[in-house]
Backbone:
């Protein structure tokens, strides 16, 4: 198949591109590289340096004999180039990671909120129009987020819910209560994509993904210094598990936001790739808009911190946990029971988050410890203050 | 009260501004005037000329002794001026009509779709940030649309629905199935506003309005040639009733899209103003996001055409009805039972659409008949073709 990876310079995009290339697919990466700028704007960089995309692709070719094409394009502002790329490459599947991915980034200021919604919503809108015009049979695999749903007091279904009301029944989009301008941008995307499938007969799968952890895939291990993917631990682009590992390695307390009862879905980066592969291999029919909830386990933030504390103890680290004022506006104790059977039905074999993996992450962080910038570990973006 | 009318140059904005001014409120209009450009881009202009805003405001002062302040600002692109206006005027209520209001316009092309979402979503986002910063106690009265809901097979509630699912219960945002990029922009707005109320403690009422008809209010009648509001009959900015009146006056067949079983909520322009007045007079608490469904009657498009045919016969016009291929993607026969009790509970006294009103519209159109451009009556924007 011809597979276009939008956002192929990123944490998930790069391993995804290598995976499909290694599996004999024809892969093209398109990326604006803008995320590297957004990181610098926040004073944050990945824990270990990530070589330029062109260099990694060249080394990938040397190492595997396989070519990955690269196009530099901002899909939110350069629609003409996007149309041209789709016309020339004629992808069978488009895996779309090319969005501003940080909730705190979107809450920094009016400018960042507007930028996030403009970038994500208009970028995806341009993609829908470009697909309709240039490759209407392609399968859009769009990365959404479990955060689109928020934390309702009922079970979360996969995209749609059957509602019986006043004696009548319909299956309707699951109501969304997103909790940042970033998460809102993903909800807006979902509505736009659903409409495009309905009115134009496009096909799309919206992967409402949990929080991804992990730093290694089969392909990153082939040439670790060059092929590894980015590891963010800062309060803007990093996720809780990464931050906790870095704090444990530095010997400073793990910072749990508020009570720590916030419950979320999680998955290993290798399972992200497995899920995307299963999705690409089982496309929906033309006109169909599917939603899969993509995660394998559910943890509270407190549980994550305890897991890191335990793994740290095993490595001889003395780890404390601090509860700090929650910079976000979110429920800290809540019901959470999201369904996630559709990918299992397609054959997903989930990996569990285990102590071995956390210890491997801790060891990797310990090796890079001198590069840590402790300043960026602590939240400065507050949801209620703009 | 100090009342800011965003989009005060428009069909609803201008009569709203006059109404509140006449009722002794301190009124400011802010408008980018861009809608006049969008009309020209589509080769469409109102049936009768609308004097420049500044001229109308000057004549309003001459006629009533009352001042309406005017600011020219594009809220989607000039956030700094928007902040300044809110800071200086310190409105108690902000009535927000300042969006691109046409579904067909949003379906013309990628450019128009992206423009509509950018203009509406970012404009409203800027407003939310500006309110938070400069007048956090003000009441945002936002014009949404009944089209946000689409046509589900269950009763439509006002914004929120109690869902019982697997033995648990929650009240969640009513699921949305909008049917154009314009309607989608309003859904995006609703989600953004709901979030801003929750996280920042703003107060807002989202008025999910039906299709407005009518050309006269108490204030437009005070100096009809100058104070009348715009009448659009073209296939992009006009609504069905207006188009049917113009077609009846010209003696050409009324063009019903498809089967004509499309069912929608409607209300008189005087009831729009009554609803906005009731809303402004009964603000929600800080942090509250309310949704009112704002319409008074439900008709099918076919019924509307029959009503115009009947009124036309009464005036001696020979009126035919043609069913033409539906340019839109929409259900043409469907269940439709949206609730609309909240404004009634606040005291709304609805006007019915009666034959006298249709005959008055027909007579007004007959007087302006020589200005009609027949070309713009027929749909050229097709939902499935971009």
Residues:
């Amino acid at each position: 198949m011809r597979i276009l990876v939008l956002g192929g310079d990123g944490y998930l995009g790069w391993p995804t591109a290598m995976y499909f290339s290694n599996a004999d697919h024809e892969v093209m990466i398109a990326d604006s590289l803008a995320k590297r700028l957004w990181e610098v704007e926040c004073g944050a960089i990945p824990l270990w340096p990530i070589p330029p995309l062109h260099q990694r692709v060249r080394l990938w070719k040397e190492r595997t004999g396989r070519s990955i094409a690269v196009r530099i394009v901002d899909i939110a502002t350069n629609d003409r180039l996007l149309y041209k790329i789709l016309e020339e490459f004629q992808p069978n599947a488009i895996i779309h990671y090319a969005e501003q991915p940080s909730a705190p980034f979107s809450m920094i200021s009016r400018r960042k909120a507007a930028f996030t919604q403009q970038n994500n919503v208009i970028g995806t809108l341009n993609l829908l129009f470009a697909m309709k015009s240039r490759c209407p049979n392609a399968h859009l695999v769009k990365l959404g987020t479990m955060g689109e749903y928020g934390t309702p007091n009922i079970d979360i279904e996969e995209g749609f819910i059957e509602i019986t009301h006043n004696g009548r029944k319909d299956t309707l989009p699951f109501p969304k209560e997103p909790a940042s301008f970033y998460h809102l941008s993903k909800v807006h995307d979902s509505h736009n994509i659903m409409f495009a499938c309905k009115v134009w007969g496009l096909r799309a799968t919206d992967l409402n993904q949990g929080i991804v952890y992990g730093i290694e895939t089969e392909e990153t291990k082939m040439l670790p210094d060059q092929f590894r993917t980015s590891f963010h631990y800062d309060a803007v682009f990093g996720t809780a598990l990464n931050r906790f590992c870095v704090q444990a390695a530095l010997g400073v307390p793990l910072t749990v936001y508020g009570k720590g009862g916030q419950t979320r879905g999680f998955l290993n980066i290798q399972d992200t790739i497995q899920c995307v592969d299963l999705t690409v291999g089982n496309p929906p029919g033309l006109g169909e808009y599917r939603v899969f909830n993509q995660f394998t386990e559910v943890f509270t933030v407190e549980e994550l911190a305890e897991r890191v504390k335990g793994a740290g103890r095993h490595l001889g680290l003395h780890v404390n946990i601090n509860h700090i004022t929650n910079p976000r506006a979110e429920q800290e104790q809540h019901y959470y029971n999201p369904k996630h059977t559709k990918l299992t039905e397609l054959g997903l074999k989930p990996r569990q988050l285990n102590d071995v993996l956390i210890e491997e992450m801790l060891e990797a962080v310990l090796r890079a410890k001198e590069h840590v910038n402790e300043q960026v570990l602590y939240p400065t973006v507050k949801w209620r203050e703009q």
Observations:
- The radius of gyration of chain B is 20 Å.
- Residues 110-134 of chain B form the longest helix (25 residues).
- Chain B touches chain A through 51 residues (CB under 8 Å).
